[in-house]
Amino acid sequence: MSQKKSIWKKLLPYFMTGMLTGITLIIMLYALKIYPFGDKAYLWADADQYFGIESYFGSLLGKNDIFYSWGNVLGGNALAELAYYSFSPFNVIFILFHDHMIFAAHFVAYIKIIASALAFCYCLLSTCDEKNILIKATLSTCYAFMGYMVFYGWNTSWMDGVILLPLMYVGIRKIIQNKNIFLYVFSLAVAVISNFYIGFMLCIGSFILYVVQLLLSDGKFADNIKKSFIKYMFASLVGVGISAFLLIPTYLGLPSDRSLTIFDLFKDMSFNTTPAEILSGLFTGQSNTLKENAPLIYVGMFVLILDILFFINKKISFRKKAVYSAVILIFFISFENSFINQIWHGLSKNHCFNYRYSFLLSFVLLLIAWETCQVLKEELPPKEDLLKAVLILGVILAFVIQNASDKINILGISLDILLILIFITAFSLKNLRVRKATAAILSCGVVVSLACNGYFYLKDIRMQSCNTYGTNKAMMENATETINDDSFYRMDKSFSLGRCDANLFDYNGVSNYASTENVENLKFLKKLGVRHKWMWAKYTTNTPLATEALLGFRYILTNRENAKGYEAIGEGDGIKYYRNQYALPVLFPVNDFENFDLDELNDFQLLNQIWASINGLQEDIFTPNTVSNTSHDGENQLTVTVENTGSLYLLIPSRSSYNSFKVTGAGREREIRYDDASEVYYIGEFDRGESLDISFAAKDGNFDLDSISCYTENKDIIYQNSQLVNQQNLSIEEKSSSHLIMSYSGKSSNIATTIPYDEGWTVYDNGKKLTIEKNWNNFLAFQLDDADEHNIELVYRPTGFGIGSKITIFSIVLLILFEILNLNTIKNRLRKKRA
């Protein structure tokens, strides 16, 4: 055989796999009118998060770096965010095509689907030669379009784990066979680096698969353990150790309230789902929602029939059946039991997207199907086995219909029945040529059923528009061009494409949504009038001018009229651009540092105290108005008498339970939707002596009108304070997103910032390291030494990055030394054999 034919023979299974996977993907995308076959983006649920953070990753060749992002809420740990969402090796595509994000995002999603199929094909090829190519390609396509991949396809950071699992499985086998550990170490390390969350689940899954392969290996179980356990544990530690540069700072950067102790989990032990709901995932078109989804274990009816035949076939050993039965049982118990389920999720609170490790069971089901194929290639199953398999399927289906009818799709079940008929026909034919033709038809049927399952999963999902992104991108580019300001500042906007627009469009803002956000920072900002719910902060026009000025929002983009007196500098596509002449810099000198008892101050009193500490001016920015409870005839109403001319704001404690409230009086009428994510609401501009009525529509009785207050904001005092700060001789330069330089010559030695406090910051004044402290309960601050001129540097490195990097280097050195020693051992053995 020529060298070219030999290479082609080796590549043919991958080519066939790629072709079947590509055809399945095209059918599904075309049917759903998803990019590039329509305006729908393969982005839904939390994909707008990933889109924004992936865009930040794509901007790393500029000033942005992997350590700190000003697109987070006022700025935050970028390394933890990237590790949680976007540290996949595939994401280099976002750097190469950063100006074409729609193309890049879809290319990454689609290439990962194909890569997962190729990885599984490699896994199958590692067990035998290149024969049975069509079966290998079909099973690999089933892996790429398992329910998990389709339903969570928008969540591309989870897909790396799916791709690496087959490689990890082969790596474990190599360890047991006393071969090199490189493949296992590589796949485990990249899995944890790509997404430490899924990586954690793979670590648990790795141990289960290691035990499975030990039990199924030739020889005694005890002997196999002695030969491989230390090597396996060493390889696992090295793999995790290589990821330490990312793993340690990410773990330390996660919000503390997300983790649970074993005791917390044990106290909340309950049943998550039912056996019928789990089994419903085996059939085409399972109905799911993000909040209440059942485990996603779909691998197609073809695989399910092979799995049933595995347990029926008498030629397959009892040991194999027992081992795989135990593994399936482990996953079923994990799905049902909340205690075990939460352990799989890293002892963290699981909000939506349940059973994120369910792809591991799908992988096992496909391994079982391959075991069946290995037996059936020698002898076809008897008709009795086929009838038994169909009967068992019927019992499972009847059980699901009886107990989880809301989870099944009748059309999907019909497709499954059709595929079963084709399967039985293919295995009943005696003529070899006809059987091969029927096998090809069966493979096509599998492709169609997989594509249909994807269609059923996604047809009712509301997806984002590619054109909308293009419109928003053009609008932001026009705004940036109009603003034309290269200095370091913050800005934000009152409209959004997604929840991570600051990272998506590369500006320094307050609006962001990420599971790695600093929760204490978000809670504090809510007391300053910034909308906050869960891990999401969002700029709105309700934000007081005093807050916008304090946080340094030099520019505001809004689709509403701005009554705060800002300078209008342009507009485009119905969006107006304003310059905030009151805005403070991000770092500035203050009279005093001060921390407050937040339980003793409401939102406006807190702002008064903060502004008073800046220049020592004691005149309040916010003054209270007279509020009277004038409820009557079942109507909940307050009457406000304005005591001072200015901007009127309502303070409603977020624990209240309203739908909306309506403002009337002083010749104006306005209805405002209530949202407990906000506490502060802008009412309008009013003169002293005016009166207005505010009526409330309540959801239930859980409210207290007497807890609501109303304050007037005085712009003149804000302007006076901001002028005193802005007249100081200081300048700020951004060398990179984690490195700021400030030049300052002034009297005050106290430098306050509106950078969220983080121990990862190191501050130098004229080369000397300073001690950082917390100011205003939330922000970074530091005190300068006595000097006329100050050259201040702020450098950010996430806590744990230093020690993590050292562990990574040490782990790589260990791996190299181990491989060298292992290679020398192999050479010595060969020499002895030759001698």
Q: Can you tell me about this structure?
A:
α9 runs antiparallel to α10. With 835 residues, the chain is α+β, with helices and mostly antiparallel strands. Among the domains are: 160-253 and 802-835, no CATH class; 622-713, Jelly Rolls (Sandwich); 723-796, Immunoglobulin-like. It is 50% helix and 16% strand. It has 28 helices and 27 strands. β20 and β21 form a beta hairpin.
Which outline best applies?
globular
Task: Provide the helix percentage.
Answer: 40-55%
Distance between the termini: 33 Å
**Got a strand count?**
27
Query: How many helix segments?
Result: 28
- What radius of gyration results from the CA coordinates? 31 Å
Helix/strand structural class: alpha+beta
In short:
The chain has 835 residues and is an alpha+beta fold. Strand 15 and strand 16 (668-673) form a beta hairpin.
How is the secondary structure organized here?
Elements: H1 3-32, H2 47-58, E1 68-69, E2 76-77, H3 78-85, H4 92-96, H5 101-125, H6 133-144, H7 147-151, H8 156-176, H9 182-194, H10 196-216, H11 221-242, H12 244-253, H13 262-267, H14 275-280, H15 301-312, H16 318-336, H17 338-344, H18 359-376, H19 383-403, H20 410-428, H21 432-458, H22 466-483, E3 490-493, H23 501-504, E4 512-513, H24 519-526, E5 531-533, E6 536-538, H25 545-550, E7 553-558, E8 567-572, E9 575-579, E10 587-589, H26 603-615, E11 622-624, E12 626-629, E13 636-641, E14 646-651, E15 658-665, E16 668-673, E17 680-686, E18 691-698, E19 709-713, H27 715-726, E20 729-736, E21 739-745, E22 750-756, E23 761-765, E24 768-770, E25 772-775, E26 779-783, E27 790-796, H28 801-834
Parallel strand pairs: 3-7
Antiparallel strand pairs: 1-2, 4-6, 5-6, 7-9, 8-9, 10-22, 11-19, 12-13, 13-18, 14-17, 14-19, 15-16, 15-18, 20-21, 21-27, 22-26, 23-24, 23-27, 25-26
Helix pairs in contact: 1-5, 1-6, 1-21, 3-12, 5-6, 5-8, 6-18, 6-21, 8-9, 8-10, 9-10, 9-11, 10-11, 10-16, 11-28, 12-28, 15-18, 15-19, 16-17, 16-18, 20-21
